[in-house]
Every structure is written in C-alpha cells, then in structure tokens.
Amino acid sequence: MSQHDTGVKAVLSRMKRIYGVDKDAELARALDISPQTLSSWRQRSAVPYALCVECAKSKGASLDWLLYGEGPMMREEKALEDEADTAQPQSCADLRAQITKILEDLPRKDLEDILSESIHRKRLRTLEQRFENLQAQFFDTSQEAV
C-alpha cells in the first residue's frame, strides 16, 4: 500500500491508526457500526464521506491524511508546521503570544507537563548562572594571587 493510496483498504487502515485499533471488528466498534456494514463498504469500495469527516473532526485528524495519505496525520501537527513555516516570532511579545495561543488548546496533563519542564529548566538556568558566577570569582581571585 503506497502512502498516497486512496482506496477503501487504505482509508480504513488509516482509520484504524486514528482509533488505535488493529482489527476490523475493533474499528466497527469504535465507529459504532456493525462489522457487516464495514464489510459492505469493502465490497462496494466506498466509505461514506460524512463518516470520514466526522472521524477526522472528532479525533483531530487531518482529512487530507485520512482520505489521501498526504501530510501529517493530526491537524495540530499541520497547524504547527504552518505556524513554523510562516510565523517566526519577531520579539519576545510575539513569541509569548504564539505560546499562549498554542497553550489555550492543550489538555490539563500537557499543561502540567509543560509547567514541570519549565520549572526544571528555570532551576537549571539558575544553577548554570551561579556556576558561572563562582567560576568568574574563582578566576578573578586566582589572577589576583599571581
């Protein structure tokens, strides 16, 4: 199966990835349809477009990826790619605004992880600065002794 395969088999395979399942029966359950319905789609070589749209919308997936295998799997990845390509922050204020915009849509767990990492980085920077200050004092003192 090529990455850009638009056949029913490929679309259903990508749907399985979106839902994190391996088998047709699991996908049918995830979609709240009968396994026979899924089988009939394979036989007719057609998956309802409206279902594809709903799947992509509810899971945050890219419809281009689901239908055509093109681009990133998830919409947020595309949005981040687009932002990275077009909007390099010009100032700290621009950077803060970009970060705030991204943070608004993150779930609590991700925000907690970001906070924890930020606190960790701040501690490291403080330790690095203290080390540099001690190093500078040491070398200043050594130079005076010579």
Verbal overview:
The structure is a single chain. The model has no long low-confidence stretch (mean pLDDT 83). The protein is built from eight helices and no strands. Helix 1 crosses helix 2 (24-31). With 146 residues, the protein is mostly helical.
Secondary structure: helix percent: over 70%
The amount of beta strand, in percent, is under 5%
Shape annotation: elongated
Number of helices: 8
- Alpha carbon gap, first and last residue: 74 Å
Compute the CA-based radius of gyration: 25 Å
Q: Tally of extended strands?
A: 0
Could you name the ranges where pLDDT drops below 50 across 5 or more consecutive residues?
Answer: none
Average pLDDT number:
83
Structural class: mainly alpha
List the helices and strands and how they pair.
Elements: H1 8-19, H2 24-31, H3 35-44, H4 49-59, H5 63-68, H6 75-86, H7 92-103, H8 108-145
Q: Which key terms come to mind for this protein?
A:
8 helices, elongated, mainly alpha, single chain
Please give a quick description of this structure.
Helices cover 75% and strands 0% of the residues.
